[in-house]
Each structure stands twice: as C-alpha cells, then as structure tokens.
Design a protein that fits this description.
This protein is an alpha/beta fold. It is built from 15 helices and 16 strands. Helix content is 41%, strand content 19%. The termini are far apart. It is an enzyme of class 2 (transferase).
Length: 539
C-alpha cells in the first residue's frame, strides 16, 4: 500500500476467520447502557470462540456487574486509577487477541460490525479500522431490540469523521493526518501495532485517542474507515456537548506530543516534547565542521528541531593540565559547546536517541551547511508529494557520492513491516511512500560558512521591512491623494472646456448675425446711393 491507499487490498466479503479479537470496554457507571452494549456484542456474527470481551470498571459506585446477556468470553476487571486511558491500558494488559477492538460503554454495535472490522485485519497485519457511529437520542430500552435501526433512528452521524473521509476520498488522497480517525468509540487495531506504538498516554487529560493514533501512524499503520461496521452511540458525546472547552484543554497538552498539528505550534521559538525534526550529525568529524553545521541548523527557519550528535561521549575524560595535547580535544570542544543547549542531545550509536514519535529525521554529514530556509523547503517537498525519503546530493566524485537524507519515520516503519528478505529498505520505502533525489545547491546547502543573522538580525530585517512597508504605504497614499486631486482638476478643466465651447458657439452665432446685418446694411446703403445718384442725374 502506498501512503494510506488501502484500496489495493480489496478483502473478500467471505473469509475464513482465524484471528482472535479482544474487545476492551472501559466503563464508569452507566450499568443500563453497559447491559445494552454487551447484549449487542452477544449478537455479533464473528465467531464467539475467537472473541474475548474485557470490561474494565474504572471505580464505579456501586460496582458494575456482568448482565446475563453477554458473550461467553466476557470478564470483568477493576482499574482503581481514574481516567479512560488508564482503564483501557488495564484492559490492554489483560488482552490476548491478535486484534484489539476499543469500544466505549455507551456504543452498541450492529451484529456484523466486528466481522466487518476483522475482514480487513485478515487482509493485512498493520491496519487501524474505524466504524461509523451514529448518535441517537432514543429512549434506552429495557432490553436490546431486534431491529436496532427501527428503535435508534433517526440518529446523527459522526459529522467530523464523515467530513474527513469525504474530503480525502476515504483517507486515500495523501491525507496529512489520517491518524485522526483513531477514535476509541469503535476502532480496532492490530495488537502488534499497539505493542510497537505503546499504550495510551495516561498523563493526558483529553485527546488520548488521537495521540495514540499518531503513534500508531508513526509505527506504520494504515487507517481504514469501514461503513459496514456500524454502531449507535447512546446519547451525545461529551465533545458534542462542550466542544470549545474540551478543545481548549485537549490542545494545551497534545500540542507537545503531536508534531503533525502544526497550527498548535505557532510560537516562533519555543521547544516541544516531541520535535518535528531530529537532525543526526556525526559529532566525531571535528569541532569546526560540526559547529558550522549545527549552528546553521539552530539558526534556521524551523525552530521545532532537535539535533542528535553521535560520538563516544561516555569515554571522554578532560585533560585539565594539558588540554591542547588532548587527543580527543575536538570531541571535548563539541561536547562542551553544546552541553547546555536544550535542542542538542548526544548519543553513542546511530540507532539510539531518535524518538520514534518524531515525524522526520535528517541525516546530515558535518561540514555541510544548510541555508536558513533549506530544511523548511525540504519538509515542504516531502509533505506536498507524500515522500518517504528525500536524498540530497551534496557531492559526487570518483570516490563516490556524499548525500544527506530526509526520512519520514512513518514511511520507514511501514517499509520495515513489508520489506521482503534481501530487499533494500530504501526500495521498500519507495514502494510504500516514494523516494526522490534533489541537488544540494538547489536547496541552499554549501560548505562555506556564512554569518548567521540570528534572531536579532531577523528582528532588525523585519523591523526594516515593516518600516519600508509603512513608508511605501504612506507614499502610495500621497500618490492616491495627488491622483484624486488631478482627477478633480481634470473634471474642472472638462467643465471649463464645455463652457468655453458654449461661449465660442454663442460668439460664432453673434458674429454670423453681425455679418448678415452688415451685408444688409451695405446692400441698403448701396441701394440708397444708387437712387440718390439717379435723382441727381435727372435733375
């Protein structure tokens, strides 16, 4: 499967059930709802012999009990530690199934729901499958009715999930956050994926489902929405009732743990529990090249970063009498220079120290210096094209190729799940996510250190740019006023021209009239003079 495009699987409608499933139900009070949930599980079409149900009483008063109508493989345990995550982890510790099916104590599954989930899990061992939940306000029945739809409809869909699925063509169109589909109400997960990702974070107040979904994604999971796995939620959820205050609490904590939620990390300089990128650098290559590379990384436009320096740090012993003769002087200098820099850590081996929750890992040879925006541009390329690996060609010679690598952790985790014996891991990454090569020069990598602007320099540049923008805006306003003045004056000129044309027309008419009068006068005088002359001649 490439990316999250699970459509290549096409699991058959009819299959031979072989995998076991553990349904984990955390519960706090609500005995009447729990009775209906267990009655719904007793009707499932998936074989009862392959199903176990674990109800976790999270400190209910009075304690919960198992009703008569329930699956045969149902047991009740108690978790005194409050919180849904703690209860789910307690149930997870008791689960023996190949698949873990999370189920809330107020969600009633339709009879074929678990079978619809398990059809996918028989097709691939690294899936997270979520059913479609509808929220009903119907009165709770004393016993679960035979026709669930008739009793619980009309009901509202889980609008947010439906919208997410529709916007991303069923989560197949390169979605940036498919893990958001992992909701605890009715989601099943391959147990090996859960083991790789780890249990739910019981330190979180809210958002545990999404945070675990993120870690499952980092472990290589593919997320599948299954419309045939239908369920009814008995009443509205807490989130539906109080979305704004719940988001406020949830976002305050998940921002530290889910780097993919970029909009929650708008601060331009602070550090987070799980950084967005970890850059791995060989710390033994010499103080000057290591410092040039690391300093440039720390001064770049991606502050959400950590640097992991590789080297035999536990063997260092400082020679205080003759430090200049210390054979490990450069290693001592690197250690001392970054000892108190919170974004720089040290590790003895290449495979240690990188948090599996970090989305991207850049492996960069020391002495190669990224430009201020180089890392940000590489991340944009990987995100926009859904790439699992971007190779940066730094140098090529007869001795070979020197390259840096930007790795997407989730793509490499998926590749490790599907790589064939003897197959190169990068080839498997190419199959599941894509691999690309780019030129170092195109992305601003160099071996010549340049003065770092730093935050003060960036601040000054920003202030100067703002001042220039204000000056240009003021000049533009002045020019707009001048243009308005010219327009007004042009209007006056046009009006004067019209008036002048009218006056000229009037004068022309008067002149013509005067000419005609003059001609009449001349004719009259000529006629009079002729008559007078004739009269004189006759006399």
């Amino acid at each position: 499967m490439r990316g999250n495009d699970y459509r290549v699987l096409q699991p058959p409608e009819r299959f031979t059930p072989e995998l076991t499933v553990s349904v984990v139900i955390p519960a706090y009070g609500g005995q009447d709802q729990l009775d209906l949930v267990l009655a719904g599980l007793a009707r499932q079409t998936y074989p009862a012999g392959l199903t176990e149900v674990i109800v976790v009483d999270n400190g209910s008063t009075p304690p919960l009990r198992l009703p008569p109508t329930r699956p045969a493989g149902t047991r009740l345990i108690v978790c005194a530690q409050p919180g849904r995550a703690s209860a789910r982890n307690a149930g997870l510790a008791e689960a023996t199934g190949d698949v873990i099916h999370w189920l809330d104590s107020d969600v009633v599954l339709t009879p074929g729901a678990i079978e619809a989930h398990m059809r996918w899990h028989h097709a691939a061992p690294y899936l997270v499958v979520t059913g479609y939940i509808r929220f009903t306000d119907a009165e709770l029945p004393a016993d679960l009715p035979d026709d669930l739809e008739k009793h619980f409809e009309p009901a509202e869909p889980h609008a947010w999930i439906v919208d997410l699925v529709e916007r991303t063509d069923g989560l197949t169109d390169n979605p940036q956050r498919p893990f958001s589909l992992h909701v605890g109400g009715a989601t099943s997960v391959n147990a090996r994926l859960v083991e790789a990702a780890g249990p739910m974070d019981d330190e979180l107040i809210l958002g545990q489902d999404t945070e675990m979904g993120y870690r499952l994604s980092q472990a290589g999971a593919v997320f599948v929405p299954e419309p045939a796995a239908r369920a009814y939620h008995l009443g509205p959820t807490m989130r539906m009732r109080d979305k704004q205050p719940i988001d406020r609490v949830s976002h305050a904590f998940v921002a530290d743990r889910i780097p993919a939620y970029r909009w929650l990390r708008g601060h331009p300089g602070r550090q987070w529990q799980v950084p967005y990128v970890t850059v791995v650098v060989d710390g033994t290559a010499g103080y000057d090249p290591v410092r040039a590379t690391v300093d440039a990384l720390l001064a770049g436009t991606v502050p959400d970063i950590s640097v992991l320096l590789l080297g035999p740090w536990d063997t260092l012993e400082r020679d205080r009498r003759a430090p200049l003769k210390d054979p490990n002087l450069d290693l001592v200098l690197v250690h001392g220079h970054y000892q108190h820099e919170g974004r720089v850590r040290r590790s003895g081996r290449a495979g240690e120290g990188v948090d599996p929750a970090v989305p991207f890992v850049l492996r960069l040879p020391p002495g190669w210096i990224p430009g201020e925006d180089s890392l940000a541009r590489l991340l944009d390329l990987a995100r926009d094209e859904g790439l699992g690996l971007v190779n940066i060609l730094l140098h090529e010679s007869s001795q070979g190729v020197v390259a840096a690598r930007l790795e997407r952790a989730s793509a490499f985790a998926r590749a490790r799940l599907v790589v064939a014996p003897g197959e190169d891991l990068d080839d498997a990454v190419d199959a599941v996510s894509g691999v690309s090569w780019v030129e170092a020069e195109t992305y601003g990598f160099t071996t010549d250190p340049a003065p770092l602007l730093g935050r003060r320099g960036a601040y000054r540049a920003r202030v100067e740019a703002q001042a220039e923008a204000a000056r240009l805006a003021k000049e533009a306003e002045r020019l707009r006023a001048q243009v308005a003045k010219w327009k007004e004056e042009a209007g006056r000129w046009r009006k004067s021209a019209v008036e002048l044309r009218r006056e000229v027309g009037t004068l022309r008419r008067r002149l013509a009239a005067a000419g005609r009068a003059q001609q009449s006068l001349r004719a009259l005088m000529s006629s009079t003079m002729k008559r007078a002359l004739r009269k004189r001649l006759r006399g």
